[in-house]
Every structure is written in C-alpha cells, then in structure tokens.
C-alpha cells in the first residue's frame, strides 16, 4: 500500500492532476498506520 501510494504521489507530481497526489498521500499515511499498529491485538501466542 505504501508503494502504491508512492507511485501515485510521483504520478501526481508529474502529471497536472492533483487528485493523484491526494490519493497517494492518503495511501502512504494509511499504509504507515497499518504497518505500525498491530491488527487483532498485540499479544502473540506461541504454542
């Protein structure tokens, strides 16, 4: 998701469409949040 956000951000900067830049920034932020926040709890069970 972070890589897709970076690609859209670069395309948004190269092309005159600002919506790609906005979507790229949103994807980068969401990707970083999902990367650092554990989903389903932080406890890992090892059996």
TrEMBL record:
> What stretches pass through the bilayer?
6-37
Keywords, alphabetical: Membrane, Transmembrane, Transmembrane helix
Q: What is this protein called?
A: DUF3096 domain-containing protein
The source organism is: Nocardioides furvisabuli
């Amino acid at each position: 998701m972070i890589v897709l956000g970076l690609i859209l951000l670069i395309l948004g900067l190269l092309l005159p469409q600002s919506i790609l830049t906005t979507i790229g920034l949103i994807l980068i932020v969401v990707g970083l949040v999902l990367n650092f926040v554990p989903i389903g709890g932080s406890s890992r069970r090892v059996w």
